[in-house]
Amino acid sequence: MGEEGGAAMSTQTMKQGIRKNILAQREQLSLGTRAAHSAAITGRLLQLPEYQHADAVLGYMNFGAEFASELWVARVLAEGKRLALPKVNHHTDCLDLYWVDDLENQLAEGLWGIREPIVERCERLTVTYGVEFVLLPGVAFTRDGARLGYGKGYYDKLLARMVHCPALVAAAYSMQLVEDIPQEATDRKVEWLVTENETIDCAA
């Protein structure tokens, strides 16, 4: 194995270590703590000028112990914005995006129990130009915007397909902040990181 191969393996090993550690810590948060943190984060997201100025946004439906993005998603629709949500395409191993305006009737449990758009009931986005604000999930983040996902690379591939530059924002509990995350060429940093305690301008 050459130096590049060894470095890649080392990066992946380091990422997996961070991922395992943060996920374990996140699972230890009580339901009450997660609910309180999620409510605070939702309030901060709604105050972001980038969100307020956007007519169309891309969100995601939460699972497990992560930030309850469903609170924010409901507010997006209540405020009259257009909402796009992702669905894993098992043929391409990529995310397809669909416009959703009825959370009760247009979503069903999909991969890992995550609520996803029902293809027959939603309009698919053929281009993503209209999306001005993207809320990204993740396991760990640094204050300068480095993001560690769940390891499948779905969002890295999605962002690579976006030729325009929507605002990239992540929401996480403060305990998901880490000092350093190894970065690869395909990794994209977020511009804003919102926790229950603060709104971080990652480019500052």
Please characterize this protein's 3D structure.
With 204 residues, this protein is of the alpha/beta class. It has a single domain, classed as 3-Layer(aba) Sandwich (Rossmann fold), CATH 3.40.50.10420. Helices cover 31% and strands 22% of the residues. The protein has 5 helices and 12 strands. An 8-stranded mixed β-sheet has the order 6-3-2-1-7-10-11-12. A two-stranded antiparallel sheet has the order 4-5. Strands 8-9 form a two-stranded antiparallel ribbon. α2 packs parallel to α4. It is globular.
- The CATH homologous superfamily is termed NagB/RpiA/CoA transferase-like
The residue ranges in which pLDDT falls below 50 over 5 or more consecutive positions are: none
CATH topology: Rossmann fold
Structural class based on helices, strands and sheet pairing:
alpha/beta
Overall body shape = globular
Give the SSE order as H and E letters.
HHHEHEEEEEEEEHEEE
Please list the strands of the largest sheet in the order they lie side by side. Answer: 6-3-2-1-7-10-11-12
> Rg from C-alpha positions?
17 Å
Distance between the termini: 39 Å
| Level-2 CATH architecture | 3-Layer(aba) Sandwich
Strand content: 15-25%
Helix content: 25-40%
Tell me the number of structural domains: 1
Number of helices: 5
